[in-house]
Amino acid sequence: MPSNVHAAELVFLLLLLFVVMFGLLAKKLKTPYPIVMVIGGLLLSFLPHVPNVELNPDLVFFVILPPLLYSAAWLTSWREFSYNLVSILFLAFGLVTFTVLGVTALGHFFLPGFDWRVGLVLGAVVAPTDAIAATAIAKRVGLPKRLVDILEGESLLNDASALLALEFGLVLLVGGMRPTFAFGAFRLIYLTAIGILIGLAIGAIVHAVEHRIDDGPIEIALSILTPYVAYLTADALHASGVLAVVACGLYLSRQSSHYLSPAVRLQAWAVWESLTFVLNGLVFVLIGLQLHYVLSSIRDHNLGTLIKYAAVFSAFLILLRLIWMFPGAYFANLIRRRILHQHEPLPGARRLFILGWTGMRGVISLAAAIALPQTFEDGTPFMQRSMIIFLAFSAILVTLVLQGLTLPPLVRALGLAGSASSHSDEEEAARRTILTVALEHLEGLREKDRLREKDARGSDRAKSELAEVYDDLAQHYRARLADLNEDGDPSADGLAPMFYKQYVEVSRKLLKVERQTAVQLRNQRRISDEFLRELERELDLSESKFAKRS
Questions:
Q1: Which domains does the chain have, with CATH numbers?
Q2: pLDDT (tens digit, 9 = 90+) per residue, 469-485?
Q3: Which of 53, 103, 238, 492 could form a disulfide with 123 if both were Cys (CB 3.0 to 4.6 A apart)?
Q4: How far apart are CA 540 and CA 263, in angstroms?
Q5: Coil, helix or strand at residue 375
């Protein structure tokens, strides 16, 4: 046992070292780190004495996936997610169904030995996309924000729909059953509804507990525990763990402004940013390191034939997504305009093509393929399992590397680079509203203190110092209103200690007013959750300065 633990520890440390090295290289090359890490892992697999690390599906589904989904849901803006929900559903459910049916119907034409049931399983395995690299590139090159929001929403939901399709495929293939339409509809409703309800229930419990805690390490530990509880609870009840974690993350992210203190929020951001980078890095390095395992599992084909299968199948997947984009966008836009009364123009052909080109596959596909059973219920071997693993691995490499590296030049060639809506007007109006409310609150505090001191016998110097506190703060807020590009740093140099305490107290009250106003603007859908988090971070940093000084 000690030797096994020592070996596992050594492998983990080596993987972590590779993640750090490839992360630094990606930063230097200005390339999204998932691409660099997959290629790096692939190159490492050719080196002698590199440990042969096999990807355990349970490690992916029960250890890595929950916190990554939770982090992605936490960073998703509910305003944009709900506004684009129809378009997201047409990708997360419509495109997944189209991909599964396309591979089911046409897979046997270029994959010998694949009947429609095996094609259904293969289609479900490769249907979900991984938008980590796509959104990283999209934000870097300035892709229109609406497309980025849709990509992020799709990546939150399509894992659940693809895993449901895989469940149906395995029932047909391995179990030999033929589920009815009624069974399928009931399973879909149960999977979705119960998964979401479990996520919201866990979120409500965590919310109630968080209100009674104000301790950074404990709250951060609870935030790491939360996605696992949601996922495992839903899985135990045979509901969607993916949807449970997404619902929990969206709910708690929405409520976090009320229960997280500024200091805890800053600590949590640092911890979760590092955690998601490490987990994502481990995932993509592990994908590259699976080459030996994939090739060793398929020895009955020569390399040339395998390359041909990989190229044709990957091109077919890319083509399926591109084909779906245009009718899918048309019908989604029709529903949004006619039923939801959202006056959104139909995206142009260039935007739809770019959205179609971001269909990069990730670790979920490979883990689902490796998790396939090796035999049927009657004991006969599942002969196509090794080919499914190889095709899933090939689709990940081709889509992630080819599409990931070509996306920036394509965006620039189509004239979409830098065309993202910056929402500067919306953000500037929000900042002006926040500062105006803070100034009004400051004048109210000044008037209260003036009335309180009116009959007091304090010295003229004391009254002058107190007036200076309010004048200095008022000048600071007016300066920020005049020039929103400058943060301004309130200075209280020269104030007596007793009035500096008053200065800090009033400043904290104003920061609280700013924070409350920002949350109110978010609740009124005048700003996004993403911009609210940006404002909260600025206010938290300002409050941390006062905490250190006091």
A1: 53-413 (1.20.1530.20), 424-549 (no CATH)
A2: 667 777 667 666 665 54
A3: 103
A4: 7
A5: strand
